[in-house]
């Protein structure tokens, strides 16, 4: 199954993982300690983030470290931008209409 970045950020746990690794690389056990779920459940979230290209997992000795790869979030920024333009235009029209009503 091919996943995309929107699926990755749809889950609050995955968003929190992205936030944790965006500041510094962390090993998988350190990440798992931040959540009240099993290690296999955290590993599943990490696998999805890896499939979507938002993290890279690097093995160093016996440990696996997760690194953020946030350039994929640009897809979301582009998607949101089109709606931001729509809402800004709509709200500008509403503001003009309300000012016109106030002047009557």
UniProtKB/TrEMBL annotation:
Domain of life: Bacteria
Cross-referenced SMART domains: HTH_ARSR
GO molecular function: DNA-binding transcription factor activity
SUPFAM superfamilies for the chain: Winged helix' DNA-binding domain
Residues covered by the HTH arsR-type domain: 1-88
Protein name: Transcriptional regulator, ArsR family
Source species: Ekhidna lutea
Phylogenetic classification of the source organism: Bacteria, Pseudomonadati, Bacteroidota, Cytophagia, Cytophagales
């Amino acid at each position: 199954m091919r996943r995309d970045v929107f699926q990755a950020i749809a889950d609050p746990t995955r968003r929190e993982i992205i936030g944790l690794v965006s500041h510094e690389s962390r090993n998988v056990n350190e990440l798992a300690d931040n959540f009240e779920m099993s290690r296999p459940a955290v590993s599943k979230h990490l696998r999805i983030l890896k499939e979507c290209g938002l993290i890279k997992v690097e093995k160093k000795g016996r440990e696996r470290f997760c690194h953020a790869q946030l350039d994929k979030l640009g897809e979301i920024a582009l998607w949101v931008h089109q709606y931001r333009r729509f809402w800004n235009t709509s709200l500008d029209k509403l503001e003009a209409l309300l000012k016109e009503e106030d002047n009557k």
